[in-house]
Amino acid sequence: MKVNSQIFTREKIRWLQTILAERFGTLFSISEHGETEEKILCLALSGSEVYIVFDCLQSSFQESRSDFPCNLWNAEREGFTSVLESELPAPGVAKLPSPLIEKINSGYCVHYDILGLTYWMLTRMEEIGRRDLDDHGRFPAKSSHAFQHDYLERPIVDEWLHILGQVIQCVWPQIHLKRHQFDIKVSHDVDAPARYAFQKLGGLIRTMGGDVIVRKDLGSALAGPWIWLNSKKEIHPRDPVNTFDWLMEQSELHGFTSAFYFICGRTDKTKDAAYDPEMPQVRALMRKIYLRGHEIGLHPSYNTFDNPEEIRREADRLRKVCREESIDQSAWGGRMHFLRWDQSVTLKAWNDAGMAYDSTLGYADLPGFRCGTCFEYPAFDITSDQMLPLRIRPLVAMDCTIIAERYLGLGSTEAAFNKFNELKNKCKAVGGVFTLLWHNSFFSSAEDFSIYSRLLKDN
């Protein structure tokens, strides 16, 4: 799907200037020059007569498609330092000029569309209007250009901006570029806050059967009725998926804040939660989370991703319950259930519901950098051509994506820990944020607890 024939509208340029200002700590101006087929971008600094030119703008970065080439550029051969591997993937081109970055009288010329790549990846332009979706209506990792060209597990935008930072230092050596501190953000989608508490009698019996047959956990099955009877006001501490205290303890031990995202609607009885936020057990849990200094957020129900009004209703419902419990947060964020996302609808719906950030944008089927970055950034709505107040906090890794058999399938093993840790170290290398989603209910063995606690160390 093609977009406006003007490569960079005024709003796109304003958004890109914001991206660069957040990354480098300096406000640059960006201007577009030339005829339709020969447009260039100039990056300039107020009061300076030198600038950086980007003279190879790629039309493919203005389109929703994945069927274009990708090349590799060796940074070290041209005297630049790559933050990860020496060869950087260069989507959009079959052949790269040599040299790729060239000194000119007025500054430097970059013969690759770094800003176009940044726009294409961060706005998820690639996904607009796509029909190659999975059973949940999601754009899968395996359909992406990043997967097809083997750079899904690299923060490619951050890598190229690292190169641009070096060019900026060559042009304006007096600038002190902003230094970013690596961080970890952990969040927990509360699909099931309890195994037993919200069950009716028939559901309790079926759950106990699952304890014995599926989970091979006879002890939990025998304790189930007693836990169920004693979970009327609060979720009993012996409930197998009541890991909230442990999760908060882990975050507190390492100086993090855990974010717990609650489902506040039921648009699909088979996929949404068995609880309501007004239930006494859920209210008590929210109070405990808040009083310990952690965050409460929204996890909109299954069929809300293309229903802006329902997202708003569920956000209002969460805020109402929190007000009644004297829970006062300055900002609200969260993540879509099942990671369902339609870039042309969900982004603006989340913003219009009064939310401050969203952390949906990772793939369910494979871990990695769906947006090409591990930095939070301002949302840009392609459909209305405007920058939104909403912040995008890309999701890098989810528990089941790496461990569960239906996805990467590494199990609760050292191989799984190594994959999580590899992604974390790439975030650390670029000074970004490792965003980790681990459901409170996704602890089925001692190995799961070990993997999680080890990941939070060495931050």
Furnish the topology, listing elements before pairings.
Layout: H1 10-24, E1 29-33, E2 40-44, E3 51-54, E4 70-74, E5 87-91, E6 101-104, E7 107-110, H2 114-122, H3 145-148, H4 156-171, E8 183-190, H5 201-213, H6 218-229, H7 244-254, E9 258-262, H8 280-291, E10 295-298, H9 308-324, E11 333-334, H10 346-352, E12 357-358, E13 377-381, E14 386-392, E15 397-398, H11 399-403, H12 414-429, E16 433-437, H13 446-456
Parallel strand pairs: 3-7, 8-9, 8-16, 9-10, 11-12, 12-14, 15-16
Antiparallel strand pairs: 1-2, 2-3, 4-5, 6-7, 13-14
Describe this structure in words.
It is a single chain. With 459 residues, the chain is an alpha/beta fold. It has 13 helices and 16 strands. It has helices at 10-24, 114-122, 145-148, 156-171, 201-213, 218-229, 244-254, 280-291, 308-324, 346-352, 399-403, 414-429, 446-456; strands at 29-33, 40-44, 51-54, 70-74, 87-91, 101-104, 107-110, 183-190, 258-262, 295-298, 333-334, 357-358, 377-381, 386-392, 397-398, 433-437. The strands form four sheets. It has a five-stranded mixed β-sheet with strand order 1-2-3-7-6, with helices on one face. A five-stranded parallel β-sheet has the order 10-9-8-16-15. Strand 11, helix 10 (346-352) and strand 12 form a beta-alpha-beta unit. The radius of gyration is 24 Å and the shape is elongated. The two termini are 41 Å apart.
